[in-house]
Amino acid sequence: MHLAILTGGGDAPGLNAVIRAVVYRAVSGGHRVTGFLRGWKGVLEDQGRDLGIEDVRDIHKQGGTILLSSRTNPFKVENGMQRIADTLSRNSIDCLIAVGGEDTLGVARKLSESGFKVLGVPKTIDNDLAATDYTFGFDTAINIVMESLDRLETTARSHERVVVVEIMGRHAGWMALHGGMAGGASVILLPEEPFDTDEVCRILRSRWDEGRHWALVAVAEGAMDPQLTRHVMHAQEKDAFGHVQLGTGIGVAEVLAQEIEDRTGLETRSVVLGHLQRGGPPSAFDRVLGTRLGVKVVEMAESGMTGRMAALRGGEVVDADLADAVGTLKKVPLERYSVAKLFFG
Ligand code: F6P
Known about the structure:
The protein is an alpha/beta fold. The chain is 40% helix and 17% strand. Residues 10, 101, 124-126, 168-170, 221, 245-246, 278 line the site of 6-O-phosphono-beta-D-fructofuranose (F6P).
């Protein structure tokens, strides 16, 4: 078989582990692998390269993706479908493996519905994809959030300050929730539930009254106080999939920090963790998860599947319908959020 692989959307630690595993498993099964560059852009422009064992040896230790990535949406490009079909037939690709989040896998699903053999591997540091328990990249990212909170705590304590920390997650707050819980944030704010800045200030004031004169507030970039929309007004840029690009204007952390200082008189700083959360080497969990998913997806290709993705369910790597993974985001259930709230203050 001639397999092809691409990586699309925001990069995530563990992508190289998937690429390596696909190549190792494919080569051991007697197959050939082409890597398309820059996600769907590389398929549209027929920019691919052969991948052999020497190209991928030990790359599972590296963050990012050796295939590069983009947020290109082929359905927004003139003749996008036709150009993809041309590239796949010109290169005699038997099955295309798309490694990505909701957007990349959404394209994969549409292509498979149009008759192409396409499989998926779920990826996003946001962990918001349905049909899989965890996506690789998430574990690395929340460890970075936790370590950042640990570091911010010592300086917040020394200066008796509030530090508001903005954490990635436009639509789902998994990273803020897990990173904030692990890092001991006094308040965690998620996109799933609108927050009230007065209530945040009340929690902080009582913390000070009880003698704990420092606090970390973990806020997901998509969290919002409906009374406080200045940050959203400034973030009107959209990507090719129509998502508002948060973090491009004034962010929620900066606005919230200013409000907290104004309303409580407590000295407050804001920190945007930004792309630090996506960079650097993957954790052991993400290296192993990426490897298991990569091996699985080649086995799925061998058995002739299409329109499905490799997924983690209850600790096992299984195949799942791409349709179940796209369309609805996996958001933080409010019962999970209420566990974190027990520790607020
Ligand atoms: O989807 C992954 C993600 O890291 C989000 O958490 C974040 O909102 C977005 O990508 C940032 O995108 P970009 O790298 O294009 O600024």
